[in-house]
Input
Amino acid sequence: MDIQALPKISLHDHLDGGLRPQTIIELAAKIGHELPKSNAEELATWFIDSCNSGSLVRYLETFEHTVAVMQTKVGLERVAYEAVIDLAKENVIYAELRWAPEQHLAGGLSLDDTVTAVQDGLERGMADVEAKGGFIRTGQLIIAMRHTDRAMEIAHLAIKHRNDGVVGFDIAGEEAGFLPSLHKDAFDYLAKELFPVTVHAGEADGIESIRDAIYSGRALRLGHGVRLVEDIMFSRSEGDTDLVVLGEVAQWVHDRGITLEVSPSSNLQTGAFFMLGDTMADHPFDALYDLGFKVTVNTDNRLMSGTSLTRELEILVDTFGYDLGDLEQFQLNAAEAAFQGLTEREELMDMIEMGFAEAQVAQ
Ligand SMILES: [Zn+2]
Output
């Protein structure tokens, strides 16, 4: 299977987690920011090693360096531009890139400046890809940090730019102890404005966090959501038949088709499914897929996990033996859940179906 050639959709990809190592070095030199390594290869390894600790808190520490070089218009524009080019190279046809504008004000930019700089980069990237005969569409997902109290301001920022590139809203950062209800006003405002929301939930905290993402956040999708398994009882009692009992929250997510933005490598690195084990084979992805949850495959942080969407799919194929039909289903789930209009989503689905049909013939 040539997974790289297949049309793909990336819903959960952090802009500040996907920089090219060489770009970090060049941008850091310009602003005099000190890095732990000065050569691109060693720096790439440093990021991956730092993130293999199994702790979300340590994982988030690596962002100090990437965020540091994204404090100017030039830095933000370049990182956004290169993200589009890199994604298009592996045939991602639609990508939502998320990031937190409030973390990019140290160089004197305003919140509006940061969003515009990123949009400039995304548009230059899309134009470049198109000029070379390729295709990629992108959207910005604006994040408010859970531990600060700027969510309302960031929600206003997202709404202000909804007609120039911002497609959705998210909250991120430390999940445990920072429930979405802390930012209830912002979520109420976004709901009133009928603006799409996804919430990181069920990654570093359990069921109550997921419940609150749905209730207080009105999340249409869940960032990871892998700890939903804590609300699912698997047993093997009646002969060979697996008995599965879904708890209230899992049942709701299942029945309403709330999309899960799963990121296999990142989930393994942050210990999101520690209760099941510490190898990829223990990831609940396959169980959730089997039960009919709307699973999608994502990278989370391409730099920190040393990965790509192609690689994440390859890992799943190697671990769970998926075929083309399975991979197509994951892409269709993602297209269906994209924060785009119905017409645009149908176009993406058509492109996916065509691309996979061609791959099927070639096989
Ligand atoms: Zn994330």
The radius of gyration is 20 Å.
